[in-house]
Amino acid sequence: MAEERRRFQNLRSVRWRVDLGILPASPEASVEELRRAAADSRRRYVSLRRRLLVDPHLPKEEDRSSSLVVDNPLSQNPDSSWGRFFRGAELEKTVDQDLSRLYPEDGSYFQTPACQAMLRRILLMWCLQHPECGYRQGMHELLAPLVYVLQVDIDKLSEVRKLHEDCFNDDFDGVPFPDTDMVFSYKPRKDSKWGTGGDADNGSVRASKVNTLDELDLDTKDIILLSDAYGAEGELGIVLSERFMEHDAYSMFDGLMDGGNGVVRMAEFFSASKVGSSSSLPPVIEASSSLFHLLSIVEPSLHNHFIELDVEPQYFALRWLRVLFGREFCLNDLLVVWDEVFAYSNDMLLSNDEEYSFRILCSYRGAFIAAMAVSMLLHLRSSLLATEINTSCLQRLLNFPNNVDVQKLIEKARSLQSIAIDANTSSPSFLLKKDNYEYDRVHSNLATSTPPRTPLHPLSESYWEEQWRNLHKDGTGPKEIEKGNSFSRSLKKSLSQRLGLSRTESDPSPVKAVRLKSDTKNPVRRCLLNTLSDEVIRSREVAGKIQQDDFPIVSTHKEPLLSSEGPSQLKAADEDLTIPAEPADVSETQTAEACVVEACSSGENSPVFYAARAGDEHENNHDSHSERSSITSDSCAGDIDRDEIPQDEPSNCNCEDKTVSEAAPSDKNSEPVGPSERTAVSNERKPFISKLQWLLKLGRPSGEGNPDKGTCETSGDKHDVVAPIPSPSDVSSDNSRSSINLAPGDKKVVGTLKNIGQNMLENIQVIESAFQQDRGQPSPMENFSNNILGGKGQVTAMAALTELRKISNLLREM
Amino acid sequence: MVLVLALGDLHNPHRAPDLPAKFKSMLVPGKIQHIICTGNLCNKEVHDYLKSLCPDLHITRGEYDEDARYPETKTLTIGQFKLGLCHGHQVVPWGDLDSLAMLQRQLDVDILVTGHTHQFKAYKHEGGVVINPGSATGAYSSITYDVNPSFVLMDIDGLRVVVYVYELIDGEVKVDKIDFKKTATTHA
């Protein structure tokens, strides 16, 4: 469509007005129709202006005396014209701030007072007409090129006027009156004899006189016809008119902002509200993600690079979209780009019931805009891939090079445009669905908890939730879980070994039972068991740390754990689990891709807090009931606290880690442990506990009909947990209640978990006994700092053990 | 489009506690560019309050003012108009138009603003305007107890000034408007 010769090829303002819907778009529209449309748009503007631009000094028609109480300058009455005047003055001040910085190069057309006044009026009126949008920075930059092209065309007109003087004369119907009639003999016709010497030169240029319009080329003819003062609608209909430049600019601006009943409405990009987009995101954010989506289809490596560097599309796309690339290209290049953008129609391509992912991609124009952005990204591809940190990446993006070949970019964009449109309607991207899912989940979260929180970052999804979704999506466990299972099996073996070797009192059988049962579970539960067993391992390691003599095995056992290969997630998880035994560097967060790794490692940063809190609790009361109730009550609120935690993805394995790492608080940051921390951190404790509960819930119901892993459901479950906890005597009744919530099915799993709980309890008892034996003994711990020795460390460890006890109780209760 | 607030004779705290609430609700900062006050505020509180409405504040000394540093008379130019300010107790007989006109000629101003009588008056006189904004709080004067709170807002726009008079009559704010146009003088 762009290849055929377009009407008004050289008259940008007319072409743009056609594209933006102000002038009739059909190729057969006659000059008359164009003129009438132009005149109509101008009349609209004039009436608008009369209504909105208020001069309170002008006398009003109605009776004065009664209205003075309303209409005086100090009146607070919102109806008063003075009130409107002051409000307009406020808006003007804001607009002026931006206008003074518009294309400030010296001698720039935009800085002339006349132009500034015009721009100010137009912006003011548009904003008064659309109070819901108000004025936003960037609107002036959308308006400026529109005014510029109008000015350019008017200059062209004056050139043509000079060249073809005779065509602009005032002869009616082209028939000159006879000179013999004295009355009409005086015609204001320029004669080469008049004028200065300069005109003589011009006269020679004009030697080739044309007598009729038809001898002119098509473009010039167009110009002349459009500017004929006696055509349709008279002067108001002169399409290229300096007098009505403001009117035309306003119409164009309005057409651009409102999208002319089309899809892409620039005004939406300035609003922060969620209307006008298909998802629950503000339109500009959604459009930014649309171009990211297109990029992922076209150039996945660059897309992944962005995700790695944590570069959100709206960091740079906000400016690109809001000003339609006005800041990235110089004015002349920008005009070329806008030519292309406006050339595509803005009409909605899809019918009402078709599903689409991104609103912006629903029209050719919107798709081209997205494609243009992607082609710009591709242009910078090599330099972007070379950047290592997101600030340098963004720097590169925000300082788009000036010397680009715009045509090449446009060509590329054209080729990408069709991809964009297809991508819109093909199965809605998982990315978008995930975003929606995240938002829905978060919103349902919010519905169940009382304090409102900010929604999650879309990418910050917990490992478990992703696993669950993958499970339900594919029907099979992701491969990582499978791999993890094999790894964890070996882990279990070593666990049983250690337990057998070092345990003095506990019954080895439950461990074996665990191992036996493990094969029957589905992958998720296997992971659960893994993490639970890992936790036990950890607790044993911790115990081993404290009493190295008794559990020498632990330290040696670390190596196999660490050295064993395994899937990234679980391996990392286990590494993190074993980390407390090693103080040094693991506390630094790893930048691994898997969420869980991040989660686990980030989780590692707060074991201290958890320990501190635990210690606090331990000191407060040993009453397990109240402690449990406090935990669970924490967990209810902790659901949403989880969302807030700066450490991104608190996964459930985290909470296990926390509980275990409680026992080894001093491994990492023993210094911060202190009374002040304890109180401050009670909040942080909740999410971990809630994680724990959630994990338990995860394990409790059976089969694939697992209730929604989102916390909304688990919060509901937690409420169930709350009930059983406070009164162990009611455990049975509450068990029955909670068991009602269980999806009918796999009691075996439940039983297995019960066994786990039993096992844990026994292990805990072992450790506790060991503690009691060694209480008071100064322990030569090279890995623990000297702050927490003996009593304190043991206290915290005891607290950790009580936590474990609770967990085991819960498990057993199932 | 300059808004100038003219008021005076508040006699705070001796004769009146404060401006009427309805007046106060109308006087919001940001709209008014200048305040001219005829005097008799009397304390610093009022001065600070007026200063908060508008930073450009001009006051002349009334006989009960506690701050002795205010001048007896003041002249200023706003737009095309020259304004003169004086409390008015110096001009005897109090409130007499001819005597005030003398003062106006003395100060060579187009608009003379005086007070002391606690009665609103506005005269057009010899190509100039004499305005008395009355008492903003309705404090009793040396002459009479029957005083309505009033003040004046002038809208100076080029060669035209519109005088809005705000009076509190029976608990309601009444507004009146007077138009003055200055004949362009031959000398600058």
UniProtKB/TrEMBL annotation, chain A:
It holds the Pfam family RabGAP-TBC. Keywords: GTPase activation. Gene3D superfamilies: putative rabgap domain of human tbc1 domain family member 14 like domains, Ypt/Rab-GAP domain of gyp1p, domain 3. SMART domains: TBC. Residues 616-628, 706-721 have a biased composition (Basic and acidic residues). One of its GO terms (molecular function) is GTPase activator activity. Residues 6-345 form the Rab-GAP TBC domain. Residues 722-739 have a biased composition (Low complexity). Residues 616-685, 698-743 are annotated as: Disordered. This is Rab-GAP TBC domain-containing protein. It comes from Eragrostis curvula. The lineage of its organism: Eukaryota, Viridiplantae, Streptophyta, Embryophyta, Tracheophyta.
Automatic annotation (TrEMBL), chain B:
Pfam families: Metallophos_2 (PF12850). It comes from Eragrostis curvula. Keywords: Protein transport, Transport. Residues 4-157 form the Calcineurin-like phosphoesterase domain. InterPro entries: Calcineurin-like_PHP_lpxH, Metallo-depent_PP-like, Phosphodiesterase_MJ0936/Vps29, Vps29. Belongs to the VPS29 family. GO terms for biological process: protein transport; retrograde transport, endosome to Golgi. GO terms for cellular component: cytoplasmic vesicle; cytosol; retromer complex. SUPFAM superfamilies: Metallo-dependent phosphatases. It comes from the Eukaryota. CDD domains: MPP_Vps29. This is Vacuolar protein sorting-associated protein 29. NCBIfam families: yfcE. The keyword Transport applies. The keyword Calcium does not apply.
